[in-house]
Amino acid sequence: MTIAPEHNPVFARLGWRDRLGQSAPYLLVPVLIAAGFAAIGAPSSWLTLTVSGLAMGMMIFIMASGLTLVFGLMDVINFGHGAFISLGAYMGVSVLFWLSGWTEAASLALNVGAIGLAILAAMLFAGAVSWAFERTIVRPVYGSHLKQILITVGALIVLEQLIHVIWGAEEIFLLRPESLRGAVTFFGAALEKYRILAVVIGLGIFIAMRLVLRHTKIGLIVRAGVQNGEMVEALGYRLRLVFVGVFIAGSALAGLGGVMWALYEQVITAGMGENMMILIFIVVIIGGLGSVEGAFIGALLVGLLQNYVAFLEPKLALVSNIALMTAILMWRPQGMMPVVKAK
Amino acid sequence: MLTRLISGDTPRSPVLAALLGAILVALMFAPFLFPGVRALDTAATICIFILLVASYDLLLGYTGIVSFAHTMFFGMGAYGVALASIHMGRSYEALITGTVLGAAAAALFALVIALFSLRVRAIFFAMITLAVASAMAVLVSQLFQITGGEDGLTYRIPRELTPAFRLGEIFDTRINGRILNYYLVFFSCLMLFLLLLRVVNSPFGRVLQAIRENEFRAQAIGYKVVLYRTTATCLSAAMAALAGSLYAIWLRYVGPDTTLSFEIMLDVLLMVVIGGMGTLYGAVLGSVIFVLAHNYLQNLMGAGAEMFQNIPILPDLINPDRWLLWLGVLFVLSVYFFPTGIVGRLRANR
Amino acid sequence: MSDALLSLENIRTDIAQYHILKGVSFSVPRGQVTMLLGRNGVGKTTSLRTIMGLWQAKEGTLTFDGADITGAPISARARAGIGFVPEDMGIFGDLSVEENMVLAATNGMPDPARLEWLFSAFPALRTFWKSQAGALSGGQKQMLSIARAMIEDRKLYLIDEPTKGLAPAIISTMVGALRTLKQQGATVLMVEQNFSVAKALGDQAVVMDDGVVVWTGAMAELAESSALQERLMGLSMEAH
């Protein structure tokens, strides 16, 4: 038996409206950058702010990506995610202090090497703690959002307080490595060297993450699992293992983000992760829970807007992000790129 | 009569009934039983936190929604009274206006947040309230011309409610405005608590619990889930604001640390969980235990830290500044092992 | 029964507080197509989901290929050789058709000859190989779901209402593909509401009502007796 003649499948052509609707979130970033230019006027200030906004956005994205994937995959909401940012920052900064010979040297190679080692230590540490965290804190409360929120908030407090016990309650100041201090001038705009590095690292991680998600079997399983975890299991994959892997990787990325943020702000506190969680939640909500691309765009929007507004009207910086979230949720109540659950 | 007053929601455990009775008596006669400024202050704080925690339980325990903006609503009531007293002058009208406006603002804010989040997913609510509440806290500290910033605001309330107003003596206790103020707080909290008890035991309250148990089923039966949840959110916010107003009247001071801070939010969460989610009597027990512990246990930890100062790490762990560490541990353990809290335990052991 | 590939013994499954399966027992013989029949809501889909492990049986024993799989995780059952086509098709809409198929081939890439055969059965899959699966029509999604289960040789295929909501022309494509599968000697347990499809494909029939099995026997016997159909399933003439 062959296909019946009257059944002739055609792919419905998308109208321009649908096409624009699909790509609209991607367009928001250039639109915001253009709007920033119009509002600020001075090209050099605008360029400085744009680079700074992109750097901030990239760092927020690195911290947020794990949270959104963990939610997408197992419907687990981890309010304790911020603790891994703080843990990573403290571990990374400890390594940088330990390698002070490398960071003080006027050698780019040694400086970058020190940062690389700090990042590695931070990721390993945050990842290891998150492995224990997943087993003891998260696993017993699968399936109940209420308990997840309560337990992970409690765990966040405990981890923060343990940082106080181990590293002391005082904030720790640090200096960037020698060759990353200062700025380069580009078309009259002062661009801090470190922010350029942050943009490069952030972009690198986003591209690497996309490659893994798009072109590897594990990425395929993760993307499928976000949509319909049950079916992935029914195809023979142990989603739990994949989830634990993503949880650890996401927490390690949060630790990496913590080190980068520490070098950006040049000061760390145990509460820094908790403070970052506010921006991270805004980012994953406007991006659409479970969507890595959405989180990326959301993070860039938040970073850029925060920098533009801080320049134009400093007091409104944090409120501007609430306004952004409100506007996006009015436009798309599920966020910009919600993951379509197949159920 | 008594059963009707508590809307038929009996304690269902003799121990619980005895505890509640003792707390009621202790709070009602606090000025006479526990003389001293600090004791009366503790009693008033307990009354206000019972109301605050009970209003939070309406959301967390009865509706199954986690909010991190409850102290924001609490603060709205407090700042409402403070600002009205400053701008309208020392008067009862100012207190009433501030209270009403504070509660209205809280309900309106809650409505907007609920419309944005509950329509989509209950879990959005937790995240959005966290973001909004922290933005609000930053705003309050930045707009210091209006709010007093980190220093907060002090203001004057009608003389009859201050210690300067003297009435005479009963049972060797000097009756002054401070005691009148205490009874204003006590009876307001008692009435509002009984009102909340009525709400959760009304058909409305039962629908909320049905939604908490099984959202889809409630929806299928035909209840408008979003409408019910939104109403509960607004009601809970307004009640929190009222508690805030009372706190402002009692303290004659508002500031971010006493009303808005995230730490108070955690305290409230802990009180609900330890007392028992989904039962307003849990709010009573949780608040009493917690406020007493907060006021007196920290001293104990300080003494302990000094005692063990020669041992490594241990003094750091029981340093009074590490109070939050133990709260966090207690919190996590309670969610695991006593999800029904003290009240649940007492009722189970009947 | 020695030739049973799968057998259920007194399986009870609860969903929340509801008892859905109240002691289901039947077996699926090797190399045959067994039809699971009955009115809506009697527990057919729950039976399939319990076999797959998507619901956990509260009581009873599940034996598959000689091994007790009652408490086994979902993925272990899949790896033991059960292919599953769920009622909602379980398509990954954000993935391409190709990615859906690659994911189903648990042992690496799909076998080219097997793929060729699936393409000839479901030409639409070749046409839309690189397209997003979410954009397929309902019938195409159903074909993809079945093809996904068939991408490897499974010992047992669990297929939940493959013809639900499909146009007659697509139903005949579907029946053709399933008949080829049957001719290859596959073991199938299929839930089917369309009685003529059940009649065309089934060897054995298991009829359920209100959470228990009420009749088992040869499909031909059930197909011949309209009295039996009337009594077991409340089928009226127009359903044929």
Automatic annotation (TrEMBL), chain A:
Entry keyword set: Amino-acid transport, Cell membrane, Membrane, Transmembrane, Transmembrane helix, Transport
Pfam families the UniProt entry points to: BPD_transp_2
One MF annotation (Gene Ontology) recorded for this entry: transmembrane transporter activity
Highest taxon of the lineage: Bacteria
A Gene Ontology cellular-component term: plasma membrane
Signal peptide stretch: none
Subcellular location: Cell membrane
GO BP terms in the entry: amino acid transport
Topology in the lipid bilayer: Multi-pass membrane protein
InterPro entries: ABC_transp_permease, BCAA_transport_permease
Residue spans crossing the bilayer: 23-40, 46-71, 83-102, 108-133, 145-167, 194-213, 241-264, 276-304, 316-333
Coarse class of the protein's main subcellular location: membrane
Protein family: Belongs to the binding-protein-dependent transport system permease family. LivHM subfamily.
Protein name: ABC transporter permease
Organism expressing this protein natively: Pseudovibrio exalbescens
Automatic annotation (TrEMBL), chain B:
Principal subcellular localisation of the protein: membrane
PANTHER family for this protein: ABC TRANSPORTER ATP-BINDING PROTEIN, HIGH-AFFINITY BRANCHED-CHAIN AMINO ACID TRANSPORT SYSTEM PERMEASE
UniProt keyword list: Cell membrane, Membrane, Transmembrane, Transmembrane helix
Keyword NADP found: no
Segments traversing the membrane: 15-34, 39-56, 94-116, 122-140, 180-200, 235-254, 266-293, 323-344
CDD domains: TM_PBP1_LivM_like
Gene Ontology molecular-function annotations: branched-chain amino acid transmembrane transporter activity
One cellular component term from this protein's GO annotations in UniProt: plasma membrane
Protein name, entry field: ABC transporter permease
Topological category with respect to the lipid bilayer: Multi-pass membrane protein
Protein localization: Cell membrane
Superkingdom: Bacteria
Organism: Pseudovibrio exalbescens
Automatic annotation (TrEMBL), chain C:
One of the Pfam families matching this protein, by short name: ABC_tran
Keyword annotations of the record: Amino-acid transport, ATP-binding, Nucleotide-binding, Transport
GO biological process: L-amino acid transport
A GO molecular-function annotation: branched-chain amino acid transmembrane transporter activity
Domain ABC transporter: 6-235
Family (UniProt): Belongs to the ABC transporter superfamily.
Protein name: ABC transporter ATP-binding protein
Organism: Pseudovibrio exalbescens
